[in-house]
Amino acid sequence: MNTQFEQVKRYIGNLGFEIASENIEDEILLISDEDRGIMNLVIDCEEPILIFEQFIGIIRENNAETYKRLLQMNRHLVHGAFVLDSDSDRLLFRDTLQLRNLDENEVEGTISALSLAMSEYGHELIKICK
C-alpha cells in the first residue's frame, strides 16, 4: 500500500475527522463533518497529487451571472475553487496538493478553506443550486 495514502489517513485522523468510507485499492477517502459544512468530501491520492472534491449541488440556472458570481467567490477562497464538472451542471469545491512534500498543515488548510467557504457562501450556493 502507498505510504503517502497512509500518511494522508494519519493527517485526517490527527485533524479530528473520522473516515466515513475508504477505498484502499483506489486510495480514496470520504469524510464528513456537518458542523464544518463538509459533506462527503472525497480525498483521492492520485500520484503525484492529492485531490479534494466536494459536490455542492446542481446548477439551477445556466447563465453568465451565475458563473460570474462563482468566479467572484473564488477570488476570496484561501485554497481551492468552486468548479463545474465536464457537463457544466454540477458545482463542486476542488483543491489539489502535491503528495511528494505534503504536510498536515496543507491538508488542514484545504479542509479549513472549504469549511470557511461553506460558512461564508453556503446560503448563496443553495440559491445557485437546485
What does this structure look like?
This protein is an alpha+beta fold. It contains 3 helices and 6 strands, in the order H-E-E-E-E-H-E-E-H. A 6-stranded antiparallel β-sheet has the order 1-2-3-4-6-5. A hairpin with a 4-residue loop joins strand 2 (28-33) and strand 3 (38-46). The longest helix is centred in the last third of the chain and has 25 residues, at 104-128. The termini are far apart. 23% of the residues are buried. The model has no long low-confidence stretch (mean pLDDT 94).
SSE blueprint and pairings:
Layout: H1 3-14, E1 19-23, E2 28-33, E3 38-46, E4 49-58, H2 64-75, E5 81-84, E6 90-98, H3 104-128
Antiparallel strand pairs: 1-2, 2-3, 3-4, 4-6, 5-6
**Could you say which structural class the secondary elements and strand pairing correspond to?**
alpha+beta
Number of helices: 3
Q: Roughly how much helix do the residues carry, as a percent range?
A: 25-40%
Give the strand order, joined by hyphens, for the main sheet.
1-2-3-4-6-5
Major beta-sheet overview: 6 strands, antiparallel
Overall pLDDT confidence: 94
In terms of quaternary structure, the protein is: single chain
Task: Write a compact overview of the structure shown.
This protein is α+β, with helices and mostly antiparallel strands and 130 residues long. It contains 3 helices and 6 strands, in the order H-E-E-E-E-H-E-E-H.
